[in-house]
């Protein structure tokens, strides 16, 4: 009885430990879920503030006639660096908004899966990279002129357009990836090699020849023949006349019919890389 009581107590203790461990894991999972929600709530706000802080605006100092670009955070005077920063922050903002929207939808429906946590975390850097790639494509193709004059940025390369490009690339990462793939294929497209029909022998007419047959004519019927096609009987080429793409008339040699046996017949394509047909045997009987 004492042993049974001990075993029963051990089982109850194991069940309690398992239940406690399960509750602990659920609590940790809920904590991570809430932390992710707070992250996706704060991140778009911070990125919006950063975008506002670096946004360039024309400013004309007293006594000057040429406007300069100023922003709340003047981290650099280089226009190219400003544009890159605007695009990167806009891409991050678009990705953060997309991730927050997805999180809110799935969390509200009770379908949030912890295994997707890294997807939400990687969404922002992926969006920044895609926005940067699209910016370089558009900037290099449409705005190739160097912006030495900082005031020209408002007229030549409107930051609103590049910010919108970056934000859309971040929000619609898949569509942006597909568009970059299309551009890559269009730029690096190689000429397709023409398809060359490989000769094919359907049958020989006649399929059987007699030893020392005075008639040395052999018709090869099939497809893929041309005027430059050649015919090999055994391991030697024989004279042939092109009739159609499906018919060659071959003149055999007397030595081909000198003895009984089987002769392999192969048609070689006249065009480059055309290859050769599968061999068909011509039977020579006594």
UniProtKB/TrEMBL annotation:
Residues 8-26 have a biased composition (Basic and acidic residues). Residues 1-26 are annotated as: Disordered. The chain crosses the membrane at residues 36-55, 83-104, 116-137. Keywords: Membrane, Transmembrane, Transmembrane helix. This is IPT/TIG domain-containing protein.
